[in-house]
Every structure is written in C-alpha cells, then in structure tokens.
C-alpha cells in the first residue's frame, strides 16, 4: 500500500518550502496532499494556494505530516490545539512528524522535541528550549524529521521521499539535482 504524506497549510506559510516539498514527493509517485486551515490559504509572499482538504481527523490516516515554515504559518499552527492534538496522536503511533524552518516551534508546543535532536531556521536554537539543536541541513531522530529553511527544502523533500519508501535518487536525477548544486551522487 502506498504511503501518504500531508503538508499542513496555514496562513503565512512559506510557499517555496510547501510547494517544493509537495512537488518532489509527487514526482516520486507518492501521495502528497495539501491540508489547509481553510480551502484557500495565503502564504507569506501573498501567493494563494488551493488545498486538497481542510484540516480534520482524517489527518490521522496519513503516514507522514509535514509542517512548512514561514513565521505566520508556524505561529498559526502552534496556536491550533486541534493540530497539536493530531501531531501528538501521530507521534504516539510512530508516524513521521516533519517540520522545517520556523515550524519546529509547533513540535515544541506539542512536546515532541523532548530528548530529540532537531534543526530549524537560524536563531531558533535560542527560541526552542526542548531537545538538542544541530546545524545539519536535515536531522532525523526516530520519527521526527526537521530541516533549516527555504534553501534546504530540496534536501528535506528528497529525504522525506526516501523515508516514505520512494526512489529519491531517480527523482534527483530527473530534476538535474546533481548538476545544479555541485552535489555528489552520494549526498
């Protein structure tokens, strides 16, 4: 059975992260749905995205939930008790809970960074008191996956494809990843 990922879309989200991640996961022929706080959500750069679904308990059916950054989006997610509850339930079931940029503050609110290694946007090592902050582009600690910011969205998304059981190498090759970033094929 194909694994499914959901990207949470809240007002003020970082468009470059959310769309890049959705695009790469879909290129790997995996299901990736945009789950919004509303049907249409305006991002931090005022780009409006039409979501596949509105947030409800069906989020619990996904194998992975992904929280893009963007200060406004991260604050909106952090202040949504329903989302916090869903994240805690998914974590209890060992499902992947992923966040990047400013969004690890949402994981902290849900108490999911206790005794975990994580990364986030620069300066968030001072804002987040739980867990151990690392400077890595992508940090995986059990089922918690985190990344730094807009420029790390590609590496983050390829790692998520791999964790979902997809062929991240084939997608990297089709997207000219190795040529574009002077990245070696083993990275």
Automatic annotation (TrEMBL):
Pfam families: DJ-1_PfpI
Signal peptide as annotated in the record: none
Matches recorded under Gene3D superfamilies: 3.40.50.880
InterPro entries, alphabetized: Class_I_gatase-like (IPR029062), DJ-1 (IPR006287), DJ-1/PfpI (IPR002818), Prot/Nucl_acid_deglycase (IPR050325)
Domain of life: Bacteria
SUPFAM superfamilies noted in UniProt: Class I glutamine amidotransferase-like
Domain DJ-1/PfpI, chain residue ranges per copy: 3-162
NCBIfam families xrefs: not_thiJ
Protein name: DJ-1/PfpI family protein
Organism: [Clostridium] ammoniilyticum
